[in-house]
Write a structure and sequence with these properties.
3 copies of one chain form a homotrimer. Helices cover 29% and strands 27% of the residues of chain A. The first copy, chain A, has 129 residues and is an alpha/beta fold. Chain A has one domain: 2-Layer Sandwich (Macrophage Migration Inhibitory Factor), CATH 3.30.429. The radius of gyration of chain A is 15 Å and the shape is globular.
């Protein structure tokens, strides 16, 4: 059910991209209660002028041209504590797996209702019977 | 008002892409009460490693490299029955029009408020007067 | 905190793209209470058949192949008046800066909760302490 949009610079290697993808999925499993195999992601590669971040930083955080944007649409109901743990797991996990700076990991969540998904065959897997 | 993001593999033919685009729009008209001509879509073509799905399937559904992701942002208020009918119309419609497997049609909905749109000229067409 | 997805035609010049990007950011600052330096955007360039709009127009507005889609995810709580002023500032600002028709500026807003962001380092900057 989560759909993750992952936007990365063109220069991101295949290995790094795969590590980012896997880390986002693993963090969903381990801290956000997402079921195994629920891995749906749309990745886009971007030219340098297509990923825009504040050149002087924001809230004391400074960004680089390696920035990645991860926007997750998933079902509402997760607590603030779970969301906090998810951010930590994604940023730290990407750093450990790839060496990327945690500063360059931007995460945005969009909460939706369970009936808002069809994951193939035209069915509504999470809706009322 | 609905904005549909449609993400497809690079190998999707122009004819298939057009059929997907038209089917999504037609399903909005026929089952979801969307007005005629309200057809706004952002399509992106992707390399094979950019559309990620569970290789062992999920909830008994198995996916292929022909997978398409359709994420629709539209106004809140549609019933579960309407959403269910929309999924059916999109998945079956794409299958009939293109021969694609219904298993490869992923749909995600994001509900927003009527005042959340400007469809040209800087106006707010659905907001209060 | 706002994340703006900006989808433009491939033929958009660098100068025009930069003007669109800056105008969206400036409108956030001046009419929507967004803090300085809070500028996060994901831009995608598209082939002509990837940006779909109603060929006969919609609600009396007619579109061209120069159409741009701007989808902003930001924190809920902004009033209808603020959203209305934001649309006006973005559409008029893009017209003044680039000569583009205001008819070709499509804006979609997605409201989320303050805890739905991590803007680097794995922290949750807007959540409860």
């Amino acid at each position: 059910m989560p759909l993750a949009r992952i936007d990365v610079p063109h220069h991101t290697s295949r290995a790094v991209l795969e590590a980012i993808s896997d880390t986002v999925y693993e963090a969903m499993l381990t801290v956000a209660g997402v079921p195994a195999h629920d891995k749906f992601q749309v990745i886009s590669r971007h030219a340098p002028d297509e990923l825009v971040y504040p050149s002087n930083g924001y809230l004391g955080v400074h960004y680089s041209a390696n920035i990645v944007f991860i926007q997750v649409t998933w079902n509402a109901g997760r607590t603030t504590a779970v969301k906090r743990a998810f951010y930590r797991a994604v940023a730290d996990g990407i750093h450990v797996a790839t060496g990327m700076r945690t500063e360059d990991v931007i995460i945005s969540l969009v909460d939706v209702q369970p009936e808002n998904w069809s994951l193939g065959t035209g069915a509504m897997p999470y809706g009322p019977a």
